[in-house]
Amino acid sequence: MRNLILFFSLVTLLWCDEQMDQSFRRKKNWGNIERFSLIPFAKAKSIDSIVVTAFIEIPFYTLQFVKIPSGFLARYEASIALNDKDGNQVGRKTWIDSIKVSDYENTKSTIRNKKHYVSFSVQKKKYVLVGELYDRDTRKKGIRELKLDYNEYKKLPSLMAPVLTLKLPGEWGFESGECPTLGHRIRGIDDGVSVHISGFVEKGNYTLNMQLESNMGKTAFDPITAIADTQSSFQHKFYIAPEHLQSLRVTIFIKLAQKGKILKKEKVLTIYKPGISNYVSDLNQAMKQMKYILGNQERLEIKGKNKKEMENLFFQFWKKRDPTPETEYNELMEEYFGRVAYTNEYFDASWRPGWETDLGMIYILFGTPDEIQRTNPRSSSSAVYQIWYYYRVNKQFVFKDQNGFGDYRLDTPFLGVNN
After folding, report:
1. Residue 153, SS3?
2. Residue 304 has pLDDT above 50, yes or no
3. Could you report the per-residue pLDDT of 127-146, keeping only the tens digit for each?
């Protein structure tokens, strides 16, 4: 009964929690024009050079659409520039373009986007990548900068970060019909994923190995063995078939071996699945983070389960808690794990993540307090307290800093949760 009351309290608060911590509010209230993505992908070209293919990805909602007779139109100017560490421009490309949609809902889409890319041939040095987006109707501008450091690849052998590509018609700076992706919550895996691996080697034999690890287990691919006649760059490609991409999270391990030296890189690939929060990339970890709302029977069901069984239980538990089961979007899950992510950023302790702290637990369950007071009630004591007030549910929680280093613990136990 206690867990049921607690759960309904959480559901109510998820919908009415409008006050946010100021630091959180600042992050959420960026201007939309600044929310475009600037994404560089690098691969070895020759022993002395690297090709940087940079994308500017513009979600529709970042622009202001204007009503026209046949729908809605957004006009923009975008550019990508690459500068060296001294500020000298290596190259720049500008696009003047527009986006036209017939449906107003598409103007607010966070998924639909327009992509532009340009490739630069550079040396193994430091650079600054600059992306700009200008809305020609609102005259607002967003700027993003990324620092790139390729000095580490002067050593031989060197292994660059793998680049993942998905099948997509057109030219995207890699093989024809292959578009690079960061690998975060990817869709359209029916054609599998290609893994492009490049680097630099000395003269002689070298070997590349790739292995996958997921809830389905481990998969080792046939190694690639090659011979370099001189010091040179290399480019190879592995292909991951769709049957290896059925888990939510797949970790790719790459290993380069030459003359007794071993270099390793890894890449985490997360797969989009309907009904899973954007904040969840590891279902087993997410299940642990649900401990504040699980009932006693659900806790018993978890015991002794393997990873695959745990994944199935995760879906079952959240299906029961979905306020809109007719849609693929679970608002309650999104809010819950959004709070978990917030606590991990702002309430983390040196020995445990933020969601496991007392501050984190109360924030996850009740959201942002209506008021926070910080006080030292007794001048003879060095103890510092925080008092969180929730006027909406007539509750307050007192936290005491145990050691003066921000380790706040509930001054009295919270009996609403079995930890």
Report:
1. helix
2. yes
3. 999 999 999 999 999 999 99
Q: How far apart are CA 58 and CA 75, in angstroms?
A: 12
Residue position matching structure tokens 């997410």: 286
Residue 205 · residue 51 · CB < 8 Å: no
Spell out the alpha helix ranges (H) of 17-101: 22-28
Question: How would you label 325-336 residue by residue, b for 16+ Cβ within 10 Å and e otherwise?
Answer: eeeeebebbbbb
pLDDT of residue 145: 96
User: What is the distance between the alpha carbons of residues 257 and 264, in angstroms, rounded to a whole number?
Assistant: 9
Distance CA 368, CA 183 (A): 32
> How far, in Å, CA of 390 to CA of 120, rounded?
54
DSSP SS3 for 190? coil
**What's the token pair of residue 318?**
């959240």
User: What pTM did the predictor assign?
Assistant: 0.70
Reading the block at residue 356, the tokens are 């496991």
The identity of residue 386, as a single letter, is Q
Tokens of 211: 């292995």
Q: How far apart are CA 9 and CA 4, in angstroms?
A: 9
Is residue 5 pLDDT above 50, yes or no?
A: no
Q: What angle do CA 313, 319, 325 make, to 5 degrees?
A: 160
Residue that the structure tokens 């642990």 belong to: 288
Weakest mean pLDDT among 30-34, 125-129, 167-171, 390-394: 30-34
Helix, strand, coil % in the chain, rounded to nearest 5? 25, 40, 35
Q: Say whether pLDDT at 37 is over 70.
A: yes
Are residues 309 and 266 in contact, defined by beta-carbon separation less than 8 angstroms?
Answer: no
Q: Using the 8-state DSSP alphabet, how is residue 244 labeled?
A: G
- Residue pair 365/416 in contact by the 8 Å Cβ criterion: yes
Nearest 10 degrees: Cα torsion 131, 183, 148, 178: -70
Q: Are the beta carbons of 166 and 242 closer than 8 angstroms? A: no
CA distances from 141 to 296, 384, 414 (A): 52, 44, 48
The rounded distance, in Å, linking the Cα atoms of 276 and 273 is 6
Give the separation between CA 119 and CA 55, rounded to whole angstroms. 9
Asked if residues 407 and 415 have their Cβ atoms less than 8 Å apart, the reply is no
